Amino acid sequence: MKFISLLSTVWLVLASLAIAEPSDREEAIAFKKVAKLQQQYQKNIHKIIKQRTTGCTNKKLLRRQECLPPRQLHLNNTFIRIPGARSRYDDFVGVQVLQTHFVHNDGLFLPFHRQSIALYEKALRGECGYADWSLSYKRYPQGQPSLTGPLCITLPGGGALNFPPATGGGCVYSGPFTPDKFKIYLGPTGLTPKGPLDGLGYNPRCLSRDSSLQYSLYARPTNASGLIDGSEDLAAFNKALDTSPKGLHGAGYFMMGLVAMDVFTCSNDPAFWLHHAQVDRMWAIWQGQDLEGRMRQVWGTQTQGNVPPSANVTLETQINFGVVSAPKTVGEVVSTVDGDLC
Ligand SMILES: *[C@@H]1O[C@H](CO)[C@@H](O)[C@H](O)[C@H]1NC(C)=O
Ligand SMILES: *[C@@H]1O[C@H](CO)[C@@H](O)[C@H](O)[C@H]1NC(C)=O
Ligand SMILES: *[C@@H]1O[C@H](CO)[C@@H](O)[C@H](O)[C@H]1NC(C)=O
């Protein structure tokens, strides 16, 4: 009897460990913590900017004016390398496809995506006339768009990873990305069956999503504060963020489902840019806790998981943006308040 009661106590303890999910209160605390870490980042950034007299100064930051460049279409160039491209948006998607092996789970992951968001933002402002890209979430209309709908396409399997069905997805059926207003053309590349030409061919279809509640559990405020707080160096930060599908980076995609789950063509889903803006925010806040020690830190090599083996990333390593822009060096994008990113 004693043994049984001991056993049941052990089971109870084990069971309670198994279901020791953070409470709503813990999530709320973690949410505030990330906001506090962000304040520290901003404070540290402003401290260095205040001392500057040239370059990206405080004045320049505050008086920032967007100059509208002439409309630049790269379709001719795009058409040669990315035959399936049908829109300016596909320039960005195609570059992601071509760069995938060099900018994931390696030292170029964060710098490549930071600059990609900046380039996309510039195109939105300059070519499409979105004056206020940085709409505050406080001013965002209330109410969440529904992410699921009737099934339109099936994308079985996700490479070597198997995902349980999520909440039931399909073509986005409300908002600006419904099939009558928005089509995707490239891909799939990382899902089977592949689209023509390894996903670079013409394959018009709807934008589909399938929200996963399971993966949303890996992208909570406690995860974000744990990532920023618990990463001693950039290698640890990257590993926690990007190596596992349950890291914040992977979880964000698997939460959206379907189109976003293709590691090559996930930017077909415009939510890609919001997701990566958040990933970049994590990096910026992490850097901002110790600008001197972390701003110019690099790690890793230039190929996914170092396959095939490649050189270590340095501040001089070039990042390729194909038809979207001239290459940049890693050193040109590590700071959020220098160069083009000022
Ligand atoms: C498009 O590319 C082709 C092949 O390189 C070239 O012959 C043609 O002149 C280009 N057209 C434009 C408008 O740039
Ligand atoms: C995210 O949080 C969940 C739930 O607490 C936890 O199981 C998971 O290990 C966390 N993931 C990371 C990368 O911190
Ligand atoms: C690349 O980085 C690793 C890990 O920091 C280091 O051990 C190795 O010596 C570096 N290789 C070169 C060629 O610098």
Helix-strand sequence: HHHHHHEEHHHHHHEE
Low-confidence region ranges: 1-18, 62-74, 139-159
Number of strands: 4
What strand order characterises the main sheet? 1-2
| Estimated helix fraction | 40-55%
Distance between the termini: 70 Å
Describe this structure in words.
- 41% of the residues lie in helices and 4% in strands.
- By secondary structure, the protein is mostly helical.
- The protein has a single domain (6-341), classed as Di-copper center containing domain from catechol oxidase (di-copper center containing domain from catechol oxidase, Orthogonal Bundle), CATH 1.10.1280.
- Strands 1-2 form a two-stranded antiparallel ribbon. Strands 3-4 form a two-stranded antiparallel ribbon.
- It starts with a helix and ends in a 13-residue tail after the last strand.
- It binds 2-acetamido-2-deoxy-beta-D-glucopyranose (3 copies).
- Residues 21-22, 217-218, 220, 222-223, 226, 240, 246-247 line the site of one 2-acetamido-2-deoxy-beta-D-glucopyranose.
- It comes from Apodospora peruviana.
- Residues 1-20 form the signal peptide.
- GO terms for molecular function: metal ion binding; oxidoreductase activity.
Main features:
4% strand; 342 residues; binds 2-acetamido-2-deoxy-beta-D-glucopyranose; two-stranded antiparallel ribbon; mainly alpha; 12 helices; di-copper center containing domain from catechol oxidase; globular; signal; single chain
What's this model, at a glance?
This protein has 342 residues and is mainly alpha-helical.
